[in-house]
Amino acid sequence: MTHENKASTASFIKQLGQDTVETALPLFKIMVPVSIIVKLLDILGVVTHIGNAISPLMNLVGLPGEMGLVWASAMITNIYGGLIVFITVAEDLVLTTADVTVLTSMILVAHSLFVEVTIAKKAGVQVWFTLLLRIGGALFFGFLLHQFFYFTKLLQNPAVTAWQPEAKNASLLSWMGGQIQNYILIFMVIFLLLFLMNMLKKIGLLDRINTFLEPGLEFLGMSKDAAPLTIIGLTLGISYGGGLIIKQARSSAISEKDAFLSVSLMGLSHSLIEDTILMITLGGSLIGILFGRVFFTIAIMMVLIKLLQSLSKEQFLRYFYAKQN
Fold this sequence. Notes:
Blueprint: H1 3-43, H2 46-54, H3 67-76, H4 79-90, H5 97-109, H6 113-123, H7 127-152, H8 172-202, H9 205-219, H10 227-236, H11 238-250, H12 256-268, H13 274-282, H14 286-309, H15 313-319
Helix pairs in contact: 1-6, 1-8, 1-11, 2-3, 3-4, 5-7, 5-13, 5-14, 6-7, 6-11, 10-11, 10-12, 11-12, 12-14
């Protein structure tokens, strides 16, 4: 490698490192304090109280009231927190595959709300709308799935759960270590994502991907500029896609409408690979946790697009879009 090539590579890596810090820092400013707050709520028993409060809603989706605690745990902490509670609670219940599919599908739509709602706000979506979209969408989706399974009599066999939580040290020190590991992993993933996007851009493949996805994104009300970030969110999750969206929105690289629709889409369907596999091991069926969720997301996005078309830009910015700080 020549001296010029070494200098060019070093400059590229340095710039990539700076871009990673600029992308990850706003994300960590959200995640660190929110994680601490969530941990305190968990210690104080707030999660249990909320679970008891929403247990009557479980009847609307055909689930026993105990599942309210499971869903509340997932919404306030994260998916794994909800699943650990599920394993404990489900031991005394007889659940069908349809039941578990309804529950896991709802969890996939509404979980980790403290973190993900804050990320969505930083990316351009009002808090009230994200909460309505995620919690209301989860309940509505669960209700539709329950009705579908009730009338078709599908998946009425007893659920088989292959996933078991590992025994974890409950100490605060152990929790802090786990959080630090998560932040390091997120930083590394963002670095790799930015590296990949730079490589795809250099070889011209990013433009080809955008062109290929443009018709589908136009159908969902977005321009091709939102394609790479939306795909990252759909496949890897809001913590990654949302972090990049925040950076792009602040730099005006994508429009307010694109940022809003992209994050809304991610809110309903994200981490389609990892989370889907996780829910399968818990006993859920692809009918709900993947195919149903994708179709439901498209349907809701079509309604949202119609709504935005009826609004002026001033109304959209006033009531739905969260201004960037």
